[in-house]
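Narrative of activities, Objective 1.

The group set out to show that a structural description can be obtained from nothing but a protein's sequence at a throughput compatible with the screening campaign. Below is one input-output pair from the validation batch, recorded exactly as produced.
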Amino acid sequence: MTGLAGSGGVRPGSLGAGSPGVGATRRLVKHPRESLLLAVDFRALLGDGELISGPLEVLAEPAGLELGTPTILPAGVADPLGGTLPAGCGVQFRVAGGVAPAEHRLTCVVGTTRGNTRVTVCRLLLRAE
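Output recorded for this entry:
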């Protein structure tokens, strides 16, 4: 995995959960030939003791990206800011392909242990330079 974002930001190689709203604050940039394992941090959207339980879905608009099957992060993963994402608070998936230049909207939808459905929307820029 290339990294995780803390509450609200997006770091290169990762997606953030955004604020308690649905949008992340920065965009991820990828080359069309790269295949990246990305992680979405949902901590800012989960209540105390609430975890991601599924179902999980990741959508890309417009079409053209190859998206791997999303999975719940099973163990604590270090983030680039020196913290650790607890098990059950993040989702990871692989993204590959695409044609540059383009901007895609990645929508990650998860179910939680409290029966909630949480959504994060992030931007992915494809650049060939």
